[in-house]
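Q: My labmate handed me this sequence with no annotations at all. I'd like to see what the chain might look like in three dimensions before we decide whether it's worth expressing. Could you predict it?
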Amino acid sequence: MPRLTKSVVDAAKPKASQYTVWCSDLKGFGVFIMPSGTRTYFVDYRNTHNRRRRMTIGRHGTITAEEARKLAIVILGKVTTGEDPVEDRAVQRRKTMTVKELCEAYLEAADKGLIMGKSNRPKKESTLSTDRGHITNHIIPLLGSKRVSDLTKPDINRFVREVVAGRTVRTARTQKPRGKSIVKGGPGAASRSAGLLGGILAFAVSEGIIDVSPSIGVKRPADKIRTRRLSPSEYRSLGKALEEAKAEGELHQLIDCIWLLALSGCRSGEITNLKWDEVQSNEGCLRLLDSKEGSSVRPAGRALLDHIEAIEREEDWPYVLTPARTGQIFGGLPGGWMRIKKRAGFTDVSPHTLRHSFASTAGDLGYSELTIAAMLGHSAATVTSRYIHHLDAVLIAAADKVAARIYQMMTSD
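A: Here is what I predict for the chain of 413 residues:
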């Protein structure tokens, strides 16, 4: 074990895995030799609680061996007086951490499954993608450079007002074919971004970065409540639009997708990701393995099951809807819906409107909120599915009646 000098460090050859060269005359002072050839000086010590600590000093080449030795002596000197340089550095970092750095730490933890979402499960990738959008488009532009320790409730109130006012509205580049998207502001974006910011600050509290979240008590604007539903005549317009589009050679996957959405009340992603083994015709249900609420059992009406069974199954392909071009799942709904929507004469109808319309039709038929929630797979109703293996016949009958009514409205003149 030699004294660490420039010549000794330069002579250390990289190996297949990282290894350490210790200094012979300064205990705890060493250098990591990485497989890439990078050499990094560090100090290893035990604090007053006998916990082993390791503190990086700097990279060889950026500092010399002698400079690293002098810094190591200073660090080890602090240890002998009862200080903990690693903890002091961490405390200082926490004090100076910016909102941007906090967001990065939050997303890193989320990617490792350490941030819990609904039902105390790790956040799904689709949710994290949305979170990244709010962080990139709203939180970092308005608060990113501010230190977390300096953040106050008035700062967050101001953030909400600025997002509502559209200060973050812009055209952003994306990886999509056309390469651009519009970043929107307004009450909805402000409410969701402020909610996410509250979660990020709660994470900061749990990590000891701050003691109390300044987001507590901040009022968020009311998000837009979706009340739009299809009337019987609009259902018929949609049915005719699908008939005409099919006759003119529209993608059969798109036609099937919209029919399944209308007859099931499912979310768009639940239909585009629907697999054949999740369709349980003999039980009268869909057993979704990975919905927004986790695994979920949905009662399926006969009209829905008949339409699924009429879809030609592609050999060795697990999904009900095959991709139109490339990819694992059918991705043509957003653009295809715009074509069908225009053909039907709709201006303010989205695929989610079909879900709301399914619920509204169930309400028209006299079903209770709890029954409707169970048919839609809302989290408040999932407790029911924990105690039953075979779906309640009443729910199946309800879904059957609702699907039949919607099918009638879409096909009858």
